[in-house]
Amino acid sequence: MSVIRSAITGVGSYLPEEIVTNADLAKVVDTSDEWIVERTGIRQRHRARPDQPTSDLAVEAAKKALEDAGRTAADVDLIIVATTTPDMTFPAVASIVQRKLGTGVGIAFDVQAVCSGFVYALSVADGFVARGMSKCALVIGAEEMTRLMDWTDRTTCVLFGDGAGCVVVEPREGQGTAQDQGLLGFALRCDGSKTDLLYVDGGPASTGTVGHLRMAGNQVFRHAVVNIAEGITATCEVAGVTVPEVDWFVPHQANQRIIKGVGDRLGLDENKVISTVAEHANTSAASIPLALDAAIRDGRIKRGDLVLLEAMGGGLTWGACAIRL
Ligand code: ACO
């Protein structure tokens, strides 16, 4: 049976120039390179310039993804930005990206599911592309998490960074099997009863301030391992593939111990798990496309591979997506 699949035809990413090492942070809070590396695997993070809003990071990633796909801004008819750190409360970062890229009038909006935002946004794009409402979509994860840090709180400020990643999504004809190129299946979840474990203590309709990120790290850790493992298993079922068949796992890059915990729980081959958390820390919705791009650039992930993206974040939200590249 012939079906329309949403295929990833280009990938790009961008990290701001400034690198903040663990040693740099040890001058700001009572911490050490040793503690951060042992508990998280993080060695450094990138930080955007004060005059460099999230939309600028998104635009740089989008330009690279368009070039990779052999497309231009004129081809784009849909832009979805997954972000928790918009330039302004409104308009959406996607609207600003549209203007800066010069794509012309089309559909553009943001998706807010914190660290799971990229997986959520991909599923939304799938709805447009597979129904013929978009011929060339940009799905972008772009974040400036450093703007949400309380720089006196060592339990959170060492964990996050800034960055952006983008994929181009276009329709491709498939046969309705797991061999098709494109997005093969999703599992998306939110458990709103656990909002107090990970949140920002501000907002336009509460304090009228931006606020700072607050987290019960231990509890988030436990939920992350269990929930992500469940999301992966459910996604494989929906997509009609098995966990051992997956060529590459591209997890949300929050913490090396969470990545390892999920791998251990599911018995994953660690050589199939992409990890870039050491280089850019937790960039929330940007971390999956950043890791995907890195592994494609260095030649590990290739066309035709079965790739599984997975994430968990504030909400608590979590989810996964199976893709034949
Ligand atoms: N440097 C030095 N010591 C620290 C630091 C730091 N940066 N942060 C905390 N500590 C101290 C604590 O104060 C505590 O000291 P105490 O024993 O004197 O009270 C001690 O280290 C142990 O603290 P724990 O919170 O128990 O440390 P834990 O081993 O749980 O590690 C961490 C903390 C890294 C935050 C861990 O809980 C974690 O990875 N949680 C997951 C959170 C996460 O990654 N969230 C990202 C967003 S959600 C997502 O993306 C999945």
Shape: globular
* Rg, alpha carbons: 18 Å
Tally of DSSP β-strands: 13
Strand order of the largest sheet: 1-7-6-4-5
Ligand catalogue: acetyl coenzyme *A
Largest sheet: 5 strands, mixed
Summarize this structure briefly.
The protein is 32% helix and 26% strand. The protein is built from ten helices and 13 strands. The chain has helices at residues 22-26, 33-40, 54-69, 93-101, 117-130, 154-157, 217-239, 256-266, 277-280, 287-297, and strands spanning 3-14, 18-21, 44-47, 78-82, 107-111, 137-144, 162-174, 182-190, 198-200, 213-215, 248-251, 306-313, 317-324.
Blueprint of the fold:
Blueprint: E1 3-14, E2 18-21, H1 22-26, H2 33-40, E3 44-47, H3 54-69, E4 78-82, H4 93-101, E5 107-111, H5 117-130, E6 137-144, H6 154-157, E7 162-174, E8 182-190, E9 198-200, E10 213-215, H7 217-239, E11 248-251, H8 256-266, H9 277-280, H10 287-297, E12 306-313, E13 317-324
Parallel strand pairs: 4-5, 4-6, 11-12
Antiparallel strand pairs: 1-7, 2-3, 6-7, 8-13, 9-10, 12-13
Helix pairs in contact: 3-4, 7-8
The protein binds acetyl coenzyme *A.
Notable traits:
single chain; alpha/beta; Peroxisomal Thiolase, Chain A, domain 1; 2 domains; five-stranded mixed beta sheet; four-stranded mixed beta sheet; 10 helices; binds acetyl coenzyme *A
